[in-house]
Write a structure and sequence with these properties.
This is PhnB protein. It comes from Arthrobacter stackebrandtii. This protein folds into 2 domains: about 10-65; about 80-130, Signal recognition particle alu RNA binding heterodimer, srp9/1 (2-Layer Sandwich), CATH 3.30.720.110. By secondary structure, the protein is an alpha/beta fold. The protein has helices spanning about 15-25, 85-95; strands at about 10, 30-35, 50-55, 60-65, 80-85, 100-110, 115-120, 125-130. The protein starts with 7 loop residues before the first strand and ends in a 9-residue tail after the last strand. Strand 6 (about 100-110) and strand 7 form a beta hairpin. It is built from 2 helices and 8 strands.
């Protein structure tokens, strides 16, 4: 049996582009379903929007997302956090997510000894990246 906790991102008309962007970064498999493919949905104006997307990426990354219909209020996304000790992978993800992003905190050495940065990507999703430092580093 498997249990997983993963983010489910909200978009307004940009889920396909966002999820394809994340797929190019995280690899793996991307499954997309449109509203038109669902029999209970009958608004042709929103038929091509993404009702459900699931990215099962490399390194156990799982992201889900959808276009919120125009008739519904969209809620803000919380930050998505990427962390670990594989500096090459995490820096690569940071660099890719930085394309068109607003950098809130550059990816730099943090007071706690790790390397940390924050950005909001070009789709409006906030990300935090934390690369574990050497144990004992940054501690007094």
């Amino acid at each position: 049996m498997t249990v997983r906790l993963n983010p489910y991102l909200n978009f307004r008309d940009s889920a396909r582009g966002a999820m394809e962007f994340y797929h190019s970064i995280f690899g793996g498999t991307l499954d997309l379903s449109t509203y038109a493919e669902m029999p209970m949905f009958d608004d042709p104006a929103e038929g091509n929007k993404i009702m459900h997307a699931m990215l099962t990426g490399d390194n156990d990354i799982v992201l889900m997302g959808a276009d919120v219909p125009n008739s519904m209020e969209i809620s803000a996304n919380s930050s998505v956090s990427l962390s670990g000790d594989d500096e090459t992978v995490l820096r690569g993800w940071w660099d890719a997510l930085s394309d068109g992003a607003t950098i809130g905190e550059p990816l730099t050495k943090a007071p706690w000894g790790d390397t940390f940065g924050m950005l909001t990507d070009k789709f409006g999703v906030p990300w935090m990246v934390n690369i574990a430092g050497t144990p004992g580093e940054g501690q007094a």
